[in-house]
Give the backbone structure.
Amino acid sequence: MAELAKAHAKALMPSFGDGKEDQRRIEALTHEITGLLKRSEKKFQRLSAAGPSEDSNVRKNVQEKIKINYKVMVIIYAAIVYEYAGNALALKGFKVVLEISCRSKSI
């Protein structure tokens, strides 16, 4: 997720390129993280579906810890994506304002 945050920061920086490489990197990282989260959720569900055993209290404690960690990861991931989307939108708005400002000065 740290790599995704770095890729977002890089994509938001001014550059002379078209940014397609940055977008491909962001998409690849996003796909990878989403896949990991989905696999983790499926593993957790399998663990939860296991029948009762002599270690049921231990299993419940482990499940609760995993569930909390999973939720934290999802929240962090959502925050990273949300921040990037907000910054990208703000940057796009700034570019539009700048473009309008430049046009009005040239008239």
Observations:
- The chain has three helices and no strands.
